[in-house]
Design a protein that fits this description.
MAB_1171c-like; elongated; transmembrane; single chain; Rhopdopsin 7-helix transmembrane proteins; mainly alpha; disordered N terminus
């Protein structure tokens, strides 16, 4: 009861997320982006993305309590991990600003305004990093603190200023980036996956502000003689982990989402061609080659090639006049032009198969234009699932010819 009275949000003091979780997600995002970064290294925007992800991975690798203890032990300097982690976090903050500078200007990345903004960000944040090390050298911090250094030394000369400096640099960069990202989300014409990626980025940067707010509150509480250290030791690190995971997801979603969408589209197109591929088996005299280990793109290409090869063999029996009559018949039956073309092509192909079965030894009549059939294979395969429509079109297309023969 007393604890709840003192800490209304005491349950948050038990909150803690492992630093290695966002580190793994950030590493995955870096691995996904790395090929394009290396291939297009001259692109400032991609360099900014690469720097952001690299610094983010470094922050969570070196900010983990076990790594902090290792850094202090290896160097033999108590708490030297603090300015090192602060410097990485400051460099990460600078990379956020560099990202938005180049992202905002798009194709005008070499403009004078962009170069000046880049120089300003690099100069200011490089100066912050230098100041962090100078302040640490002047501070007296002999007692090692792995997880609560900011509050433990909140009232220590020079270390107090160092803590305020890195938190201010982080908050300013995060606020600017979050505002610009949320403005871009409302921009018209964005790709759906890119918009979702920006939403995750916006949430990530907004959550980073929770990290700063928790840190500032805990430090300010120490100045006024209060103890809110749990904000520093539990809430702030957990907010940083959630924020980093959201930011990494924001970079992953546009690429992974588009990749999965393309794979799904290839598989759907491959499945939709199955009826036409089965129809072509008598022409080819064999099944289409299996490609179980091939990529979805390759399986689709092989099926399309199999169908087109069969149609080319069948082309000598294609009746273009029947195709025209079938198209007119499909329109007369109320079908839209696109579906009418597919139905007409299906009628023509089925008639050619019947002709080939009846007269396998004939050479046909010339070489008709088959481009209209070859361009319709997806639509034709789909209408094969509507045999009643094909039958109705075929019947109506044959009426004029039968009527003329009767009058003759």
């Amino acid at each position: 009861m007393n604890r709840l009275a003192v800490e209304p949000f005491a349950f948050l003091s038990e909150l803690y997320i492992s630093f290695w979780i966002p580190g793994a997600v950030l590493s995955a995002a870096l691995a996904i982006k790395l090929p394009s970064i290396l291939k297009l290294w001259r692109d400032p925007l991609l360099r900014a993305v690469g720097g952001l992800l690299l610094f983010a991975c470094a922050v969570f690798a070196f900010a983990a309590p076990s790594t902090i203890a290792w850094t202090n032990r290896v160097t033999g300097v108590p708490n030297i991990a603090a300015p090192w982690v602060y410097s990485l976090l400051t460099a990460l903050s600078a990379s956020w600003l560099l990202l938005v500078v180049h992202w905002r200007n798009g194709l005008t990345e070499h403009s004078v305004q962009t170069r000046r903004a880049t120089q300003w960000v690099v100069s200011v944040y490089a100066g912050v990093v230098v100041a962090l090390w100078v302040l640490f050298a002047l501070a007296d911090v002999p007692v090692e603190q792995i997880r609560d250094l900011d509050t433990y030394y909140a009232n220590t000369p020079f270390m107090r200023e160092e803590i305020l400096l890195y938190l201010t640099a982080h908050t300013v960069a995060c606020s600017i980036t979050a505002r610009l990202v949320w403005n871009w989300i409302r921009t018209d014409g964005l790709d759906g996956w890119l918009r979702w990626g920006l939403r995750f980025l916006g949430l990530g940067y907004a959550t980073n502000l929770v990290f700063s707010a928790a840190k500032f509150t805990a430090v300010a509480a120490r100045w006024t003689g209060h103890d809110l250290d749990w904000l520093n030791t539990n809430v702030a690190p957990s907010a940083a982990c959630v924020a980093a995971t959201l930011v990494a997801t924001g970079f992953i979603v546009p690429h992974a989402g588009q990749y999965l969408q393309d794979r799904w589209l290839f598989r759907r197109q491959h499945r939709s061609l199955r009826p036409l591929a089965r129809l072509m088996r008598p022409v080819m005299g064999r099944r289409e080659p299996l490609a179980l280990r091939a990529t979805p793109e390759m399986r689709l290409i092989r099926r399309e090639t199999y169908i087109r090869d069969a149609l080319l063999q069948l082309s000598r029996h294609l009746d273009q006049d029947l195709g025209r009559r079938s198209y007119d018949a499909a329109l007369a039956l109320g079908h839209q032009p696109g579906r009418a073309q597919a139905l007409a092509a299906a009628v023509t192909i089925l008639d050619a198969l019947d002709t080939e079965r009846r007269s396998a030894d004939t050479d046909g009549t010339g070489a008709p234009d088959t481009s209209y059939v070859l361009q319709q294979i997806q639509a034709v395969s789909q209408v094969l699932g509507s045999p009643d429509d094909i039958k109705a079109v075929r019947t109506r297309a044959s009426v004029p010819a039968e009527s003329m023969s009767v009058h003759d």
